[in-house]
């Protein structure tokens, strides 16, 4: 498949399936999906959207589980490999596409609807109007992938409008994405709540990602260095920011075959890290030809052993991005 061809995963001209709640009914056109979600809202059912690019794993299913906790929720999952998020030379054509298997997983999870449009359906006139992510989108991932976040925010905004969603669920593995989506919701006065869901990891600590399928067995072992470095850095948080970074970097530097794009300690809003308080330690690196990202919450100057157990965990994967008190987030 070339970039100019519509994705084979969704045929907008296909006959629509009869809609049945809880059976992951597949929809490929905006009109069909929008009509159903609009009807659900009118019936008083909160629409909960889980945006994905498919190749679903347990991390995605944890978002579905979180969405299903909303009372009376109508849970919809979008599957769309968004070409606007991929720069020249990135893995758009090779990105795993497993629609049939994904729908079966979502059916087993009790999802109500699956929206899997083609690129032509989503961008019938091409990418004419896009959303600029602002300064927070030019650092970290934005420095290495300059067009990525504009493409991500554009498609997420479109999905919000198409789905009429009341709630949207995003994984914290893509932490900068989560912060920028929350920023867009706040800045554009969108009437929905953004929920961040903790990272799901394999037994050895590797964060689940659709790109993990690219890793050989040897590379998978090497990829564990990322989570090991983050964990080691977070456990010296009591000693301050310099100790966190130097500890994590030492582990990454010792791992031959891990090419680090960045290791950064930031505030939960991706601003400057505080001298004391919740922060986020983020890393991006290439293992072989596969680029991976990961992050962990860090209680700088406090340390995990000094956290109040009732306080929630600024130093865990459950830390949420900072936002105004009236922000529509979970």
TrEMBL record:
Its main location: cytoplasm. CDD domains: PanC. GO terms for biological process: pantothenate biosynthetic process. Residues 316-330 have a biased composition (Low complexity). One of its GO terms (molecular function) is ATP binding. GO terms for cellular component: cytosol. It is an enzyme of class 6 (ligase). Keywords: ATP-binding, Cytoplasm, Ligase, Nucleotide-binding, Pantothenate biosynthesis. Beta-alanine binds at residue 85. ATP binds at residues 53-60, 171-174, 200, 208-211. (R)-pantoate binds at residues 85, 177. Residues 308-330 are annotated as: Disordered. Coiled coil: none annotated. The active site is at 60 (proton donor). It catalyses: (R)-pantoate + beta-alanine + ATP = (R)-pantothenate + AMP + diphosphate + H(+). It is found in: Cytoplasm. Catalyzes the condensation of pantoate with beta-alanine in an ATP-dependent reaction via a pantoyl-adenylate intermediate. HAMAP family: PanC. Homodimer. Belongs to the pantothenate synthetase family. The reaction proceeds by a bi uni uni bi ping pong mechanism. This is Pantothenate synthetase. It comes from Corynebacterium urealyticum (strain ATCC 43042 / DSM 7109).
């Amino acid at each position: 498949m070339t970039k100019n061809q519509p994705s084979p995963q969704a045929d907008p001209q296909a006959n629509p399936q009869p809609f049945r709640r809880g059976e992951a009914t597949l929809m490929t056109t905006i009109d069909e999906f929008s009509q159903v979600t609009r009807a659900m809202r009118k019936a008083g059912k909160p629409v909960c959207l889980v945006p994905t690019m498919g190749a679903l794993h347990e991390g995605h299913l944890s978002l579905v589980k979180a969405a299903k906790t909303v009372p009376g929720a109508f849970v919809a999952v979008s599957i769309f490999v968004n070409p606007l998020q991929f720069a020249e030379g990135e893995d758009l054509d090779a990105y795993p596409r497993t629609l049939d298997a994904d729908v079966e997983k979502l059916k087993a999870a009790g999802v109500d609807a699956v929206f899997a449009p083609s690129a032509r359906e989503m961008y019938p006139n091409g990418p004419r109007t896009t959303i600029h992510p602002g300064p927070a989108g030019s650092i970290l991932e934005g420095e290495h992938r300059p067009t990525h976040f504009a493409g991500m925010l554009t498609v997420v905004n479109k999905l919000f409008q198409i789905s009429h969603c009341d709630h949207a669920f995003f994984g914290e593995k893509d932490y900068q994405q989560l912060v920028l989506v929350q920023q867009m919701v706040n800045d554009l006065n969108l009437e929905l709540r953004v929920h961040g869901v903790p990272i799901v990891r394999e037994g050895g600590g590797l964060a689940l990602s659709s790109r993990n399928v690219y890793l050989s067995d040897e590379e998978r072992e090497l990829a564990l260095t990322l989570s090991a470095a983050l964990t080691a850095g977070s456990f010296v948080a009591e000693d301050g920011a310099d100790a966190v970074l130097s500890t994590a970097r030492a582990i990454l530097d010792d791992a031959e075959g891990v090419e680090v794009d960045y290791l950064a300690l930031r505030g939960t809003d991706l601003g400057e890290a505080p001298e004391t308080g919740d922060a986020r330690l983020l890393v991006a690196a290439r293992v072989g030809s596969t680029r991976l990202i990961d992050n962990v919450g860090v209680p700088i100057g406090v340390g995990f052993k000094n956290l109040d157990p009732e306080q929630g965990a600024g130093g865990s994967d459950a830390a949420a991005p900072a936002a105004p008190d009236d922000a529509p987030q979970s």
